[in-house]
Amino acid sequence: METSRTQVVIIGAGPAGLLLGQLLLNQGIDHVILELRSADYVRGRVRAGVLEMPTLEALREARVSERLDRESMRMPGFNLMWGEDSVHIDFALVNKYATVYGQTKITRDLMDARQAAGGVTHYEISNTQPHDFDTAHPWVSYEKDGRQFRIDCDFIAGCDGHHGATHKAAPASQITTYDYAFPFGWLAMLADVPPISEQVAWMNHPDGFLMCSLRSKTRSRYYFQVPRGEELKNWDADRFWKEYRRRLPPSLVDNLVTGPALEMSITPLSSSVSTPMRFGRMFLAGDAAHVVPPTGAKGLNMAMADAKLLFEGLKQYYGDKQNSTLLDTYSDDALARVWKAVRFSWWMTNLTHKLSDNPFNRKMQLAELEYISQSVAAQTTIAENFCGLRSRG
User: How many domains does the chain have?
Assistant: First the structure.
């Protein structure tokens, strides 16, 4: 077994792992990133595209925001629509805004910056396993090209998703996971077509939710609700557009431009939070600790907030004579924000989706939507939550 040493081993090269790596790199803290997939696979993953202000601040601190600042679009609010009724949620109510910039671009920016700075990432590895993280001397083993490796370290950052090695390694007697699965999912399409609206729109239709999200003025990502267990093989672009058009409010139908699918996928909707997010010298971040429905645009932003919070703890530890104050409070600080974000995503999902065939649920949704349309206080609450709550303060 080939052995080496570093200060921090980051497992997972998703946005959380890459952001944490770039912040550590700029601070001169030695680290290595380990990733199961290939670099091309990581670079090409299509995911979220709405960024909260704390996420923007973290990317700017990591010095990877040049293209983001040039190409992103400011999102001043969004529309909630049901039938021919709607309400605009104006982020100016909380003196904030969100930003539209695809996760694929964020990943590209972070990977390019890491490569330019000489950061070490090992892709296409297997059998990754954290060891002895309940001691002062943790280490990580993995395999690549038929060879076995060991990296000794001070800390392990688990950024490898809900089914990754770090979540699995957490002692069953110490971790508690709270799960909720919605009985539906989202069918998504990415297409090079202009969006139906300059405003992102969440739409409640009697037959199920639909959404318009823009990546640019010429690229759109559309979603609508499908039953849980629906299979992608049953859908092509033509069927997608037909169903999407059927659910659109009449005022938007004429704006719909169709085209070939660049990518289609189905995402089951579920919520999951694992506590705590620290086990000795191993810390969980992003999907390794929590998963949310995409309804509230929280998943990516929660992962980035975790990475930034963990970085602050590591920066203090290495810069202040091994002061572990912020590392010791990492789990509690992160979870305080996580639960609020999970609540908002759960609430938005219940507000906008067909929950069942019980007409009572539909009447409650309509009453809630009407209340929101008439209440500045309710709109302010939505704007505050959508634009992002901070981990501290």
Answer: 1
Residue 142 lies in a domain: yes
Cα separation of 101 and 326, whole Å? 30
Mean confidence (pLDDT) of the chain: 94
Q: How many CB atoms lie within 10 A of CB 45?
A: 13
The pTM for the full model equals: 0.93
Q: Cα(391)–Cα(337) distance, rounded to whole angstroms?
A: 5
Q: How far apart are CA 167 and CA 37, in angstroms?
A: 17
Whether 337 maps to a domain, the answer reads yes
CA distance 217 to 214: 7
- Count other C-beta atoms under 10 Å from residue 183's C-beta: 13
Could you tell me the CATH number of the domain that includes residue 308?
Answer: 3.50.50.60
Report d(CA 52, CA 388) in Å as an integer.
5
The closest alpha carbon to 355, from 222, 225, 211, 195, belongs to 225
Lowest mean pLDDT among 194-208, 262-276, 369-383: 194-208
The parent domain of residue 156 ranges over 2-72+100-179+269-353
Is there a domain that residue 240 lies in? no
* Per-residue model confidence (pLDDT) at position 392: 52
Q: Is residue 232 part of a domain?
A: no
CB 184 within 8 A of CB 353: yes
